[in-house]
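Work Package 3 (structural annotation) set out to generate three-dimensional models for the target panel prioritized at the project kickoff. During this period the team completed the workflow that converts sequence records into discrete structure tokens, so that structures can be stored uniformly alongside our sequence database. As a representative example, we reproduce one entry of 315 residues exactly as it appears in the project archive.
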Amino acid sequence: MRIETWGTAEVPTTSRFDAWSQALNATLLDWELIGHAKDFNADLKARSVGDMRLVGCRCDPCEGFRSPVQIERTGSDFVGILFELSGSELVRQGEREALLGPGDFVIWDSSRSMQFRVLEPLSKMTILVPKVAMQRFLPNLDEVAGMRIDGTESLGPLVGAHLRQLCAGLGTLEDEHLQMVIHMTMELVCAGIGARYGRGTEGGADKFSQVRRFILDHLADPDLSPATIAASNSISLRYLHKLFAARGASVSRWILKQRLERCRQALSSYNSDRSVTDVAFAWGFNDASHFSRSFKLEFGQTPRSVMNSTGGAER
């Protein structure tokens, strides 16, 4: 067996974050990392077995994302089972946001855009498995990717205890035994997801469809908000949030994603009579800087670069 280890302890302070970025990309797929403390600390421990990989990570606050650029560089599609050992971070995939604390876990799909933000020094473990292998255990992967599994509810404590033991045994199990344990882990994780989300996620489907249509019809309205949506659809604000939470999403994030996609489509079919700001404001944004930052995080490109690729120039 071969355990790969890396840490910032022997790296000059001024070079640590760049070295960390290179180490993470070499160990856990491709990421674009941003934001960090001046005296950044991190370490990695990784082990590969067959086409699967286990990665233990400890790091200070930072953030990063996988856009279509990083996804294309990765090549093969993987699924990550991310288990939080200590600390906290925010993980976002598609319309879903998961705020993870100790004992929580989430599944993420390497073929889809994703962002993370480490909120405090943390320790976590990620199991990377081929997507096709995970889909044998979890055919509805797209429906649950990005959903937080609470480590204190239902099967959460059992799954958490198993993952902690797996992390502790990273350097002791023989390859053959480790492969068996990883497959057991996949089954147990999927059972935990089924226990948490297997029933009831379709509740309120008719009302959700009604709300969804209303939002899409009013995306261009800058005053669109959870409060106005709830009032216009004769439901409480609490029930509105419950409808989206049952699907692993938040109302505000879903609105933002829909607006960004409409802007991307408009910029991709460039009209010389409209500037980037015109397009953003036409779809409900009222702050050009906020729009540009959100667009870059979502798509990995600036609005201007998308527009220029069609032959236009920002005005």
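Confidence is low (pLDDT under 50) at residues 199-203.
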